[in-house]
Design a protein that fits this description.
This protein has about 650 residues and is α+β, with helices and mostly antiparallel strands. Helix content is about 50%, strand content about 15%. It is globular, with a radius of gyration of 25 Å.
Length: about 650
């Protein structure tokens, strides 16, 4: 997961035999896309065409569905450019520059502590972002912290806020095998979609694009992935991981398991529930497997012993170096001490701040409106970090773009959140009276949803434009709730940041400095949903007696289809036309994580071989450690996409554009 300004090209050459130069890397970077749905993608034509995963556009397909068509279940096929439809709230971003701001950030906060430290750092971050973007409305600048605060860099993106859906397959084909096949292999998923970037109402001219490969990947050939892995904890201390294992994850797994059960019931029973819940159900099924996989990894005594041993070795070197110890002290002890408050602070922080609303879109809008109004006139150093001026443009788009809301799903999410709050809060807590107003979780949730007018973008716009006076005068029950619990939520956030997150982050910065002093900077940082580069090869895995090969084929798909996992009607009708030997899905040794969905998989020439859409079961533990013998990325091949676009979907114009004809 190397950053693009620190790729060890010599190491790449020694391990793969491929010599990469600056032009090759710049071209791949310039064709790689970050989507604000938490996914990745790649530019594949000169006219802004982007390939990604179907599961990355589920929310768009659902938003564009209406009485005339269910785009989730039936797919979205366009024949002409004028049929391409804007995806609400979606923004695409291409990285165009990286500016190191570490010294500037350190200097701004040197010698400061507590609130003064936070204010100075936030002010410096906002200033750096503003200076790098220099008022250019086409750009978005974002400060990214690496190595637990050991480095700070401003990532400069060319943004596209008009992103239109071009093609999405039916859910049955994109997610063939359903949740049972998720994080497994062999796989037979047509998990691809196409978007187009527009500017000023016309398809964007995109100079960098990846050449669409017309040949299948070969076993053993080198592969390279550029994408935006979201989150890893490979540098976290054993004490921090133990806190997550013993406190955070058990609570989250219990809550998500209950929520998933209710979502499945809703999808099976509510009118149109399968389509309404498709995006959320996919997300929750994926999350519960990830959370359980993380917990299993942290419960593995061998893994934790290995982490403690590696940590002890670095710590011993620091303690044995008087100058280094004088500079950083014992940050490992500080992190261990912070865990004592984790249990007491976590529940309130999760209920009122990080998990407030439980996934309700209406509550998310209400909180955003309340906090934008409250934060707007505060000095930069005193604002919540996520409400910096540089982030308001995307926030405004997310808030004001028209987006459908399902009352049934809203009530489900809110009532689950309220039920968890009732269990987790101390008996007689004043915040319970504020939240529930004397009602049960289900009754309160229903009243909030049915009474709110935030489903209307015009109402949201009026509250955004009206600022704090409009918020305070609003009678909308969702806005009133967000405003009423805000003081308690901020208190919970402050306690968490002061007792746990802040001490851990400051200690991690010192550990990062120690590692730089002892080992140099020849390593990659943990994932931060910023563009990263990974190299590997097409490969299966397992001991010889149980080897899992790296390929599936269309023939394998036809053999795998059964009553539990039937072929989608279009695929069934075209089955005899498909070449059964075509490579469908394939696995590589590339190191990826959540956020890499839709990432381009390219060969030594830089041609696109496929798009990553998943990992195998072993990849879940990749949040904590990468195991090259077992971790595998799973991708959909370009040859399979070409074959299906031509013979199943008959998208000849799209196919010509992809193949450069």
């Amino acid at each position: 997961m190397w950053t693009f300004d620190a790729i060890p090209v010599r190491q790449v050459r020694e391990t793969t035999g491929v010599r990469l130069d600056a032009a090759w890397l710049d071209h791949l970077r310039g064709a790689s896309v970050r989507l604000t749905t938490g996914c990745s993608g790649a530019v594949v034509s000169r006219e802004g065409l982007v390939v990604t995963n179907a599961h990355c556009v589920l929310a768009c397909a659902q938003a564009l569905s209406d009485a005339g068509g269910d785009l989730v279940q039936d797919g979205f096929l366009t024949g002409k450019r004028e049929d391409e439809r804007p995806c609400p709230t979606l923004q695409a971003e291409i990285l165009v520059g990286i500016v190191d701001a570490t010294d500037f950030i350190y200097a701004a906060s040197a010698g400061k502590f507590s609130d003064a430290f936070v204010a100075a750092r936030q002010g410096a971050i906002a200033q750096a972002e503003r200076q790098v973007c220099d008022g250019d409305a086409r750009l978005r600048c974002q400060m990214v912290s690496f190595f637990g605060g050991g480095q700070f860099k401003v990532y400069k993106y060319r943004k596209y806020d008009d992103v239109r859906l071009v093609f999405a397959p039916e859910y049955e084909a994109a997610f063939f095998g359903g949740d049972a096949d998720n994080f497994s292999f062999p796989r037979f998923d047509f998990d691809c979609a196409f978007l187009r970037l527009y500017e000023r109402g016309r398809p964007a001219a995109t100079a960098n694009r990846l050449v669409w490969s017309l040949r299948s990947p070969n076993a053993g050939e080198p592969t390279f992935i550029a994408g935006n892995p979201g989150f890893t904890e490979r540098d976290a201390t054993a004490a921090d991981l133990e806190g997550e294992r013993d406190i955070d994850l058990p609570a989250v797994v219990a809550q998500q398991t209950k929520l998933l059960s209710r979502l499945r019931t809703f999808a099976g029973a509510a009118p149109g529930g399968a389509s309404l819940a498709a995006d959320r159900l996919f997300e929750e099924e994926n999350l519960i497997k990830v959370y359980k996989g993380r917990l299993a990894a942290l419960l593995d005594p061998a893994f934790m012993a290995q982490r403690r041993a590696a940590e002890a070795a670095v710590r011993a070197r620091v303690l044995g170096d008087s100058r280094l110890f004088a500079a950083i002290g014992d940050p490992w002890a500080d992190i261990a001490a912070a865990q004592a408050r984790r249990a007491s602070d976590f529940r309130a922080y999760q209920t009122l701040e990080s998990g407030a609303g439980g996934g309700s879109q209406l509550f998310s809008w209400a909180r955003m409106l309340v906090r934008v109004a409250l934060e707007r006139d505060r000095p930069q150093g005193g604002r919540l970090a996520e409400y910096a001026p540089s982030r308001r443009v995307l926030m405004r788009k997310t808030l004001l773009d028209p987006a459908p809301v399902s009352p049934g799903l809203e009530i489900l999410y809110l009532s689950e959140w309220l039920a968890n709050a009732k269990v987790g809060a101390p008996p007689g807590s004043p915040i319970l009276t504020t939240i529930f107003a004397g009602d049960s979780p289900q009754t309160r949730a229903a009243g909030l949803v049915r009474g709110s007018r935030l489903t209307d973008p015009a109402v949201r716009r009026a509250l955004w434009d009206g600022g704090l006076p409009a918020i305070q005068a609003s009678s909308d029950p969702m806005v009133r709730l967000a405003l009423a619990i805000d003081p308690a939520a901020r208190d919970a956030r402050t306690a968490w940041e002061d007792d746990v997150e802040g001490p851990v982050q400051r200690a991690e910065e010192r550990i990062a400095r120690a590692r730089f002093a002892l080992e140099g900077e020849a390593k990659y940082p943990d994932a931060t949903f910023s563009l990263r580069f990974s190299w590997g090869a097409v490969a299966g895995w397992g001991p010889p007696a149980h080897t899992i090969g790296p390929f599936t084929t269309f023939g394998g798909l036809l053999g795998r289809a059964d009553q539990a996992s039937p072929l989608a009607p279009r695929w069934k009708a075209a089955a005899l036309l498909l070449d059964p030997a075509t490579v469908f899905n394939f696995t590589t040794t590339n190191d990826i994580a959540g956020g890499n969905s839709g990432s381009p998989v390219v060969n030594a020439r830089g041609d696109l071989l496929g798009v990553a859409f998943d990992g195998n079961a072993a990849s879940i533990a990749g949040e904590f450690v990468y195991d090259p013998a077992r971790n595998r990325a799973v991708a959909l091949s370009t040859v399979a996409m070409s074959e299906a676009l031509g013979k199943v979907y008959r998208r000849t114009e799209l196919l010509r554009e992809l193949e450069g004809r």
